[in-house]
Amino acid sequence: MTNTLLILPGDGIGPEVMAEVHRIIDWYGTKRDLKFEVTEDLVGGAAYDAHGKPLSDATMAKAQEVDAVLLGAVGGPKYDTLDFSLKPERGLLRLRKEMDLFANLRPAQCFDALADFSSLKRDVVSGLDIMIVRELTSGIYFGEPRGIIEEGGQRVGLNTQRYTEAEIDRVARSAFELARKRGNKVCSMEKANVMESGILWREVVQKVHDESYPDVELSHMYADAGGMQLCRWPKQFDVILTDNLFGDLLSDVAAMLTGSLGMLPSASLGAPMENGRPKAMYEPVHGSAPDIAGQGKANPIACILSFAMALRYSFDEGAEATRLEKAVEKVLGDGVRTADLMGAEGGTPVSTAQMGDAILAALDASL
Ligand code: IPM
Ligand code: MG
């Protein structure tokens, strides 16, 4: 089976971190005989500059055909004044929606070498390894009606939180399946105390559990308390299952626990395609960081670890994914640091490309 990849570097630091991923992909081709057929295209502001839209129909069609999409980052101040429908973020949301990538996996892992970068005490975060499963294609992000309407002589901003049973059911299954391969625990978070969608969420998750995954430990928590518990004692969690908006918030909280946003990958998975592989897109959790774009300062690790997730979830190469993750861990353990990882002890940061060099050297050493 060929392995096809569509790379969308996007805006800001996207292209420079993606350049390092290209080198990793080449390494797998030459050193592990693991070949990828790669095409590259535009998304976000870069696509707007070229086509007047944040994602062209041709790019959307390509994304539907490949085994995996790898996305860098979108957005930048240059596009802030654009009409809502043309903003770079709309390109990303269109990919998620049209590929129906309903399960967004956001691991928050604390690398031991970086535990002191967390705003929390070392013993609270060291060894932390949680996985947030965020519903990604429904809820208030996409619910209708929406808009800014006129009512009683004033404007009203309107969005709708909406979940069908089927939408809750399928993402719950993703969370339980993942939990079985990890710590075997799922904590589901909603606001069943104030929202009907939360009541239904809780009922459906419980039903999926009782019928199909009784062996997995399931608990429920209100999402606000979940945020608090994440900051108090995050190691109580294994898999956190939550909706689109709460997942957006909680995954940023979880990300910060680990000390650096520049380190965290994500996978967005949909239903299996004809070849058995899931529809998939992989992207770093960080944004386009326009303030440092083009300076060779950005940390490529989140993007590289996103490719590791692609190896694991799209290409069934779990051992090679682990090899890449271990290479990153080794480099961090050796004290190699990009500018975002410079602590109080100081030192000289390496460039984006030097971080890539170090990871490639660690990969070579792993053979
Ligand atoms: C994320 C981001 C996106 C979201 C934005 C860029 C649309 O914050 O992936 O978490 O809100 O989902
Ligand atoms: Mg977010």
From TrEMBL:
Q: In which pathway does it act?
A: Amino-acid biosynthesis; L-leucine biosynthesis; L-leucine from 3-methyl-2-oxobutanoate: step 3/4
Query: What's in the keyword line of the UniProt record?
Result: Amino-acid biosynthesis, Branched-chain amino acid biosynthesis, Cytoplasm, Leucine biosynthesis, Magnesium, Manganese, Metal-binding, NAD, Oxidoreductase
Q: How is the cofactor bound?
A: Binds 1 Mg(2+) or Mn(2+) ion per subunit.
Is Manganese among the key words of this record? yes
Q: Which reaction does it catalyse?
A: (2R,3S)-3-isopropylmalate + NAD(+) = 4-methyl-2-oxopentanoate + CO2 + NADH
Positions of substrate binding = R96, R106, R134, D224
Positions of the site: Important for catalysis?
A: Y141, K191
Identify the residues that bind Mg(2+). Answer: D224, D248, D252
Occurrences of domain Isopropylmalate dehydrogenase-like (ranges): 4-359
Q: Which residues bind NAD(+)?
A: 76-89, 287-299
Q: Does the keyword DNA-binding apply?
A: no
Per the record, its GO cellular-component terms are:
cytosol
Q: Name one Pfam family in it.
A: Iso_dh
List required co-factors. Mg(2+); Mn(2+)
BP-aspect Gene Ontology terms = L-leucine biosynthetic process
SMART domains listed in its UniProt record:
Iso_dh (SM01329)
Family the UniProt entry places it in: Belongs to the isocitrate and isopropylmalate dehydrogenases family. LeuB type 1 subfamily.
Task performed by this protein: Catalyzes the oxidation of 3-carboxy-2-hydroxy-4-methylpentanoate (3-isopropylmalate) to 3-carboxy-4-methyl-2-oxopentanoate. The product decarboxylates to 4-methyl-2 oxopentanoate.
Among NCBIfam families, the record links this protein to:
leuB
Q: By what name is this protein known? A: 3-isopropylmalate dehydrogenase
